[in-house]
Amino acid sequence: MTGRAARWTPMRRGCVTLETANHRASRARACPVAGIDDRQHHKTAGVASTGRPSIYELRQPEVELGGFLDEHLPALRGAAVLDAGCGPGSYVADTLARASGLVTVDIAHGRLRLVERRAGRVCGDLQALPFPDATFDVAMAMHVLYHLPGIAAGAAELRRVVRPGGVLYALTNGEHAQWEVQDLVDRNGCDPFAGGENRFTNENGGDFLRTAFDHVQLTELTGSRLVVRDPECVIDEIERNRYLTEPGLRPGVGWQDLVAGVRRDVVDVVTREGAFVISEAHGLFTCS
Ligand SMILES: C[S@@+](CC[C@H](N)C(=O)[O-])C[C@H]1O[C@@H](n2cnc3c(N)ncnc32)[C@H](O)[C@@H]1O
Question: I need a labelling partner for 23 at 20 to 30 A (CA). Which of 44, 236, 275, 277 fits?
Fold first, then answer.
C-alpha cells in the first residue's frame, strides 16, 4: 500500500479544513454546512459527555478493536486511509496505529472536534467528498451510509476517492439489530426508523454498493450483545441520537415524554432481570 497521505486540497465545498497526514497542520474549523436544516442542526450540536460508559462499551463478549481491524480490515495496514463519517473518532487511534496516514471526514463539526488531532479532520458531506479522485488506498464508512439521503451517491463518491485496486470497508447492522431499542422507542411514541437506519442493512447494502464497486463481500458478525445495567446509559444513547430519533415523534408526543417512557421501561426491565440486553447483528462489506 502506498502512503500518499501527505496533503489534501479542498476541492469542492468551502466547508473544509485539513490537516496533513504528517500532522503539520492545524485544527478543525467549525464552519456551517450550506443549506443546513433543523435536522442537520442536531448533527452539528456537540455531544455532551455524561461520564457514563456508552452502551457500546458494555458489549459482551468484549471486542478488542485493534484485533478486529487486523482480522477484518487488513488493507488498513500501511495505507492512506479515509474514515468517512468518523463521528467522534472511535476508530482513529487504532487506525493510526496501522495506516500510513489518516484523514477523517464528518458532516457534524461538533463530533469532528472530538477527533484527535493526529488525524486530518475535514468537515464535509460524504455525498460530495472534497478530495481529488484516487486520493486514498482505503476508505472506511462505519455505521454511516444509512444516514445519507443518497446512499448510491455516497458509494459513488467513495469509489471515486479510493484508488483503483483500493478497498472500501462499510459496516452496518442487520434489519433486526437492536430490536429491543426499536421496541422501546416505538412503544413510547416514536417511529424507530425515522433516522433511516434500516435503509442500508446487511440485507440490502450489497445492492447499493454494487452500483459503484465490482466486488462486494459481506461478513456477518453475530453473537455480541450489549448488557446494560444502568438505565441511564440507555437514556444517554437516546439523547445522543436525538437528531435521528426526534423527527419520528408521533403527534402529541414531546421529546421529554419519550425519554420518560423509555426510562420507566428500562428501569422495569433492569429491576426484574438485572440488565437490559440489546442484541447486535453487524455486517461488514468489503468492496473493491
Ligand atoms: C453512527 S455515527 C458513526 C460514527 C463512527 N463511524 C463510528 O462508527 O463510531 C454516524 C456519523 O455519520 C455522520 N454523517 C451523517 N451524514 C453524513 C454525511 N452526509 N456526510 C458525512 N458524515 C455524515 C454523522 O455526523 C455521524 O458522526
Answer: 44
